[in-house]
TrEMBL record:
One of its GO terms (molecular function) is oxidoreductase activity, acting on metal ions. It comes from the Bacteria. It comes from Streptomyces mangrovisoli. Pfam families: Ferritin. Gene3D superfamilies: 1.20.1260.10. Residues 24-163 form the Ferritin/DPS domain. InterPro entries: DPS_DNA-bd, DPS_DNA-bd_CS, Ferritin-like, Ferritin-like_SF, Ferritin_DPS_dom. Belongs to the Dps family. PANTHER family: DNA PROTECTION DURING STARVATION PROTEIN, GENERAL STRESS PROTEIN 20U. This is DNA starvation/stationary phase protection protein.
């Protein structure tokens, strides 16, 4: 931990040092969720092409749910005795990923890039679940619930990227730009 996140108090039955580890873990989850809902809104505003309306309407419920997830994580941080840093400056300073790289683009290109975004977010949530599970079942449960929704959202995205043979058009892509190009090809 870069700074001491051990709270002065925490929930009953949890050691303060363990709560500090959870607060640190949840801090990045909060940043990731805030970043994700802004990224999804960016896609909503910048999607064009023949699949515009389908993607435009598909993304908004995801934005709403991801905002709710961020709120749940922030409230868990507070319950554990921590401070939920939800400011843009904190997010940008502490995040471990780059900003979303696709601007105004075809719907399928955005979905290709979003597949990469969801893969990263989901992988990080799975790692957080493993760590939280060793410390606190309530925090683990919160993250598991969010994982189910995030995986469903990725499935919605991937349904647009899957070909009739059952392969993803973005399967070999490692970056958002590669995935956008592969999806649009």
């Amino acid at each position: 931990m870069a700074k001491n996140l051990t709270p002065d108090f925490t929930v009953p039955g949890l050691e303060r040092a363990a709560a500090g580890r959870l607060i640190d873990l949840l801090r990045l989850r909060l940043h990731a969720l805030n970043d994700l809902h802004l990224t999804l809104k960016h896609v909503h505003w910048n999607v064009v092409g023949p699949h515009f309306i389908a993607v435009h309407q598909m993304v908004d419920p995801q934005v709403d749910r991801v905002r709710d997830m961020a709120d749940d994580v922030a409230e868990r941080i507070a319950a554990l005795g921590g401070v939920a840093q939800g400011t843009p400056g904190s997010l940008v300073k502490e995040r471990t990923w780059d900003d979303y790289s696709i601007g105004r683009a075809d719907a399928i290109a955005h979905l290709g890039a979003l597949d990469i975004v969801y893969t990263g977010v989901i992988g990080d949530v799975r790692a957080a679940i493993k760590t939280a599970g060793e410390i606190d079942p309530a925090t683990e449960d919160l993250l598991i619930e969010q994982l189910r929704d995030l995986e469903q959202f990725q499935w919605f995205v991937r349904a647009h990227l899957e070909n009739s043979g059952g392969s993803l058009t973005t399967a070999r892509a490692a970056t958002e730009e590669q995935a956008a190009a592969a999806a649009g090809a």
